[in-house]
Design brief:
Layout (H helix, E strand, L loop, with lengths): L2 H17 L4 H12 L3 E8 L5 E6 L5 H11 L5 H7 L5 E3 H4 L2 H5 L2 H7 L4 E11 L3 E10 L7 H21 L7 H9 L6 E5 L5 E4 L1 H9 L3 E4 L2 E4 L2 H15 L10 E4 L8 E8 L3 H10 L3 E8 L6 H9 L3 H13 L2 H8 L3 H15 L4 H11 L9
Helix pairs in contact: 1-2, 1-8, 1-12, 4-14, 14-15, 14-16, 14-17, 15-16
């Protein structure tokens, strides 16, 4: 099969999994094969405690090492801090986060990756709030080498659909405990999600979607139908809904993106329309009388977490931010080195750079710096 045919089938599998969660493991396995990885997973991480919940994985990492990661090594994983700093949809691998020679000296590599023959990882943030992030990761085996340009190219083809698949999954009732924890990670997102019939009738809307309808600035409900406030955008949406009902090839399994009118506060919105045309999606369409899924969200700015704001303000590297957070949470240099699984000399080197960049002289100053960026109010998304 040509790459385009394989990709089209894979995209369909991803969206099918969004509506039937039992299919996620298979979809992740096919994704891993397509991009050239050893194992793949969807998981959620807490930005403060660095704890992790695996929602779905393809079964290549056995239960023993999965349990070890969740119970111990998620906190030692040097990629975590860099992942929290990454933009949604941005591809990152080990060399983007930490010098590879330094990575090879970490306890995470020596005790968790090396025994499995793993040498690298590529990941992307699918969605995040100031306190949590939902992520996709693919790990590489030593027989395949480090993440390369071909793997990055293929990941860029797949990642947007993984993200939409995860968002669509929020519309559907997630049944397993792990999936519920994963879904909780996305509660703060501002995306409105709708299941719509061929005539635009709203079959289902999530809380954010109902909030958009209530404001009426970019989307409205008129006689139960989803209407864009901008007439040109609305005409385009209605045409897509009709095409989705007829299985129009122009819509395809990828779906399309439609720009919506600007919100009065200046924020721009875009709607992604994905047809319910195949596999589990067709069955869901019959059940819900829906022909398409609509995801409407803001384009652009997202409120950063305190660590993210600090890193941007002082231009810290992921490694420097990792040391900063560990110094604040754990204590002195020996304790930080032990907690992160790196040499004390490495901690001291990064600490000197932190002092230079922040204008601090003592570790106590760094604690005050962190406190100064932390808001006493919980941040939320509209």
């Amino acid at each position: 099969m040509q790459e385009s045919e394989v990709l089209a089938t894979l995209i369909g599998d991803i969206y099918d999994a969004a509506l039937d969660t039992a299919l996620w493991c298979s979809a992740l396995g096919k994704t891993r094969e397509f991009v050239g990885g050893y194992a793949a997973a969807l998981y959620a991480k807490n930005t403060l405690s660095k704890t992790c919940d695996v929602a779905y994985e393809d079964g290549r990492i056995g239960p023993y090492y999965t349990r070890l990661y969740l119970e111990k090594y998620a906190r030692l994983d040097p990629s975590t801090t860099g992942q929290f700093l990454a933009e949604i949809g941005e591809l990152i691998n080990t060399e983007n986060l930490i010098a590879y020679d330094e990575f090879l000296e970490t306890r995470f590599y020596k005790e968790w990756m090396q025994p499995q023959g793993l040498v690298d990882l590529a990941s992307t943030v699918l969605d995040k709030s100031p306190t949590a992030a939902a992520m996709f990761v693919v790990v590489r085996h030593e027989r395949d080498g480090l993440v390369d340009d071909e793997m990055r190219r293929r990941l860029r083809l797949v990642v947007p659909h993984l993200r939409r698949g995860v968002l669509v999954g929020r519309v559907i009732d997630l049944k397993t405990a792990a999936a519920s924890r994963f879904a909780d990670t996305l509660d703060g997102i501002s995306a409105g999600m709708f299941l719509v019939a061929a005539n635009g009738a709203i079959v289902h809307a999530n809380a954010s979607g109902n909030a958009l309808l209530a404001s009426g600035d970019v989307l409205r409900a008129v006689n139960g139908r989803l209407i864009a406030s901008d007439s040109e955008a609305d005409q385009a949406l209605q045409e897509v809904f009709a095409a989705a009902a007829n299985g129009d090839p122009a819509v395809g399994v990828r779906g399309i993106a439609q720009s919506l009118a600007a919100h009065p506060d200046g924020e721009r919105y875009v709607a992604h329309v994905m047809p319910l045309t195949s596999g589990a999606r067709r069955q869901a369409g019959k059940h819900y009388a829906a022909v398409a899924v609509v995801i409407a969200h803001k384009v652009g700015f997202q409120m950063p977490s305190a660590p993210e704001a600090i890193a941007k303000f002082y231009k810290l590297t992921p490694s420097e931010l990792r040391i900063l957070l560990a110094i604040v949470q754990v204590g002195g240099v020996p304790e930080t080195a032990e907690a992160l699984g790196v040499a004390e000399s490495t901690v001291k080197t990064h600490l000197r750079r932190l002092f230079d960049k922040t204008g601090s002289n003592r570790q106590a100053d760094l604690v005050k710096l962190i406190a100064g960026f932390s808001s006493p109010l919980s941040q939320s998304h509209p």
